[in-house]
Amino acid sequence: MERKILVPDMHCENCVRRIKEALSELKIEAKIDLDSKTVTVLGCENCFETAFNEIYDLGFTPNKM
Amino acid sequence: MKNEVYKISGMHCAACSAAVDRVMKRLEGVDQCEVNLITEKMTVSYDPKKVSFEDFKRVIEKAGFGISKADSEKPVSKAEKKPISLIIAGALSAILLYVSMGQMFYSNLPVFPFMSMNQNPIGFAITQIVLTVPVMFIGKRFFIVGFSSLFKGTPNMDSLVAVGSTASFIYSLVTTFGLKANPHGVHNLYFESVAVVITLVMLGKYFEQKSKEKTTDAIKKLMALTPDISHLCKGEEVVDAPTSKIKVGDTVLVKPGEKIPLDGKVIRGESSVDESMLTGESMPIIKVKGDNVTGGSLNINGAVYVEVTKVGKDTTLSKIIAFVENAQAKKAPISKVADKVAGVFVPTVMAIAVLSALIWLIFTKDLSFAVRIFTSVLVIACPCALGLATPTAVMVGTGLGAANGILIKNGEALELTHKVKVAVFDKTGTVTAGKPSVTDVISDDKIRLICLAAACESVSDHPIASAILSYVKDNNISIKAPSSAENIPGKGIKCEFEGQEIMVGSLQLFEECQVDFSMFSGEISTLLGSGKTVMLVAENKIAIGVIAVADSLKDGVVATFERLKGMGVKTVLLSGDNKAAAEHIGSLIKADLVYSSVLPNEKAKKIAELKEKFGTILMVGDGINDAPALATADVGCAVGSGSDIAIESSDIVLIKNKIDDIPKAIKLSRLTLRTIKQNLFWAFCYNVICIPIAAGVLFAFGGPMLSPMIAGLAMSFSSVCVVSNALKLRFKKL
């Protein structure tokens, strides 16, 4: 299953790296696109919620799409 | 409420500091929070009953940053640690080479008896293990990163180091255990290759790290442009106050020679202001009541009172800082040649190792022999010469650049410059001298005209006056001082000279004084059309001639543009000046494209557009206004005489200030890249020959298995080839 999270305050490659590292530590598979400012979570509903909370904890303001 | 200052580590860009700010503000009990990226400090105002340092630590560490009390000892950064570990690794590797390889080539080399290869093979092996393990520990990062990227399916240079050295180490370790039964196995130890490879790759990474640290210096210097203290006006009284405390609507006094602290509007006084560092405009601009001034620009000759209109993040300077920060953060890492190669090489070697082991297992049914084949292939593929291939070429390349006055800050820039499709030049200060000079003198009696103008201007310190005076000096014309002079700010000068009333000034001044200059209107419109500044000269209220001044081209610019075109590089002129001036210069240098009236914050945008359209972009600039564009371009190139900020934001610095070094830099990059490719070829040549031998191809036809002597010789030969090939680059002419 694929679900998207919009992260409007993801500005740069550095932000992408921080999200990527945090999600891969949790073994969550995700595609991060800086241009569209989206994180596509590949996994179950639980993975999606965990990813969403993790991005929030990183200091971003995520929105479910 | 309690106020505390903490030190935050791990922030790289404005987005990081914003993230710290957000996670802190989400905590209940935190009233205010300010995070400064440059000083790495966070000031928090909070309610100690609701929230504590432990909470701050929890959320900030969760967000991926570090926090410590501001007064606590500064943590030692990774980069500061590295030289020590590098020196230790280097020293251990040197001893290891002496002990192992030294004895192989010179059997009577002085060593302690317990580490003698022939007398005490086990002691010889244990000494090597003792020396190798600390080096492996120091370089543990290569194993962690290398294996993790290998398992993710994206092998890089680190994977190659990790796989090769792990195989070498395990193979040598197993051989050590069998030494008692077979002392001849001492020739099959590869501990030194493990240590040498790790040390060499560490050295390369250290140089990389050093160059990366410099990037934040640019921003620190930009911040330093604003004076810390401003003269704040409170009614009739003027008091000194910290610039950070100044609010919108306050009035500040700026004395001659001082920097304007913030953006604002002149409400009293007049002065010429040098905005060249911010806007690229070469001439000082006269500021009178009602004119806007920009923070960071230099007030030259008069005291002005400025009503502040913008503070903090809204000022022009702050916006430039934000631009540079963003551009630097957005620069994606360049994929290096060695990493690209490793991406193909590692899976190939692994496949050969597995395949050859399987084939031997099927044919011989001997598992131990198959394992030996498997490790031999991995050991022989250990990238000794491959590790040297890029760093030596880059080192010699940067050295050759430095000898030619081209300072290249990092190897990545050197690798990337060869791909440049378009070279973008800032106009003022880069293509032109940045100082006006006299270009045309129109009069029936040119000598007399210039004598009168120079006499008048001898009492002025305006740049146009300097241009006229240096013209007089260059042409050996002697001048006399006027008996009296009156300066009309922003318009011109009137003086009495040998009993005559002389006036030198702008068209506006002549119109105001009702002096007819219609006889020169044709020449004037031609001069204005080519972007020149026109000054009229009148004697007793009768116009007698015209003097035009313009920014002149630097030496060798035309030839540089021609050479670039010959190299297949498109040339673009980018200028903040008006269309006529930019296009005039553009036509002189035969630029392929000319963009005029580009505002400082638009320069970076233009570079991004060009990047999308043409590919790899090189930008050449000198001013603070060029810093965001220099950081945005794939390769930023600053002229040595330029501002510190431009130099810090760039990848290449032309120390000699000569623009003809640009084609040289591109040629240098092309030569270096060719050398890197040749080096990689030599390094692979060794592997192409040795891997089949290790895989047992010769053995299958009755030849040797893998003679360690041949392997050792081939390894040294490939390294010597790589180093001498790189040194050859030193003798190339740019």
Beta-strand content of chain A? 25-35%
Most residues in contact, chain pair and counts: A-B, 15 and 21 residues
**Helix content percent band of chain B:** 40-55%
C-alpha-based Rg of chain B, rounded: 34 Å
Count of DSSP strands of chain B? 26
Order of helices and strands of chain A: EHEEHE
The residue ranges of chain B in which pLDDT falls below 50 over 5 or more consecutive positions are 72-81, 211-216, 331-335
Strand content of chain B: 15-25%
Oligomer: heterodimer
Strand count, sense and barrel status of the largest sheet of chain B are:
7 strands, mixed
Mean pLDDT rating of chain A: 87
Rounded Rg of chain A? 10 Å
- Could you say what the CATH architecture of chain A is? 2-Layer Sandwich
CA-CA gap between termini of chain B: 65 Å
Number of helices of chain B: 27
Distance between the termini of chain A: 14 Å
**DSSP helical segment count of chain A:** 2
The CATH class of chain A turns out to be Alpha Beta
**Integer tally of domains of chain A:** 1
What does this structure look like?
The complex is a heterodimer of chains A (65) and B (734). Chain A is of the alpha+beta class and 65 residues long. Chain A has helices at residues 13-25, 45-57, and strands spanning 2-6, 29-33, 38-42, 63-64. In chain A, strands 2-3-1-4 form a four-stranded antiparallel β-sheet, covered by helices on one side. The mean pLDDT of chain A is 87. Chain B is of the alpha+beta class and 734 residues long. Helix content of chain B is 51%, strand content 19%. In chain B, the strands form five sheets. In chain B, strands 14-26-25-24-15-22-23 form a seven-stranded mixed β-sheet, with helices on both faces. In chain B, a hairpin with a 2-residue loop joins strand 5 and strand 6. In chain B, helix 4 (121-138) runs parallel beside helix 7 (191-213) and helix 6 crosses helix 12 (367-380). Chain B starts with a strand and ends in a 6-residue tail after the last helix.
